[in-house]
């Protein structure tokens, strides 16, 4: 993969995001996203092999409906707060956290959980490999006892 694509993706991933704090906010956002739906979105399930190709508009619309159902069923709270968007009016990068793996999604954590799914206009990279630091300390630790 072109290093500039990787850098662009990681930069976008680390960018500024706004949360859909309430369920009506998420409903409004899904409407906006459906208005921006086209064949140029990547749908990436974090932990899986990142897609090389964008999804069709029909697949994106189906994913939105399915993920909305999943979030409502599995995040039984009065608030949403698990979908983060780079720009609510003209979205290009959306992080969707798995309700069963939230950890600390708001606030501060030295090791925040990765999103469960990402929708983006930029080709995804394998996040776990791109974001985890080198294993130098682990190798050092293993050498002590070998």
What does this structure look like?
This protein is of the alpha+beta class and 146 residues long. The chain has one domain (3-144). Helix content is 38%, strand content 12%. It has 5 helices and 5 strands; from the N terminus they run αβαβαβββαα. The chain has helices at residues 3-13, 23-35, 57-74, 127-131, 136-144, and strands at 18-19, 42-45, 83-85, 93-96, 117-120. Strands 1-3-4-5-2 form a 5-stranded antiparallel beta sheet, with no helix packed on it. A hairpin with a 7-residue loop joins strand 3 and strand 4. The longest helix is centred in the middle third of the chain and has 18 residues, at 57-74. It is globular and about 55 Å long. The N and C termini lie far apart (36 Å).
């Amino acid at each position: 993969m072109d290093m500039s694509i990787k850098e662009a993706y990681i930069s976008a991933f680390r960018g500024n995001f706004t949360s859909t704090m309430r369920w009506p906010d998420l409903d409004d956002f899904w409407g906006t996203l459906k208005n921006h739906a086209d064949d140029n979105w990547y749908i990436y399930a974090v932990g899986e092999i990142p897609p090389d190709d964008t999804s069709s508009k029909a697949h994106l619309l189906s994913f939105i409906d399915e993920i909305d159902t999943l979030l409502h069923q599995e995040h039984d709270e009065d608030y949403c707060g698990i979908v983060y968007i780079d720009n609510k009016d003209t979205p290009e990068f959306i992080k969707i956290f798995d309700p069963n793996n939230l950890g600390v999604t708001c606030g501060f954590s030295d090791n925040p959980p990765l999103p469960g799914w990402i929708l983006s206009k930029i080709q995804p990279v394998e996040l776990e490999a791109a974001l985890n630091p080198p294993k130098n300390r682990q190798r050092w630790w293993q050498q002590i006892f070998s």
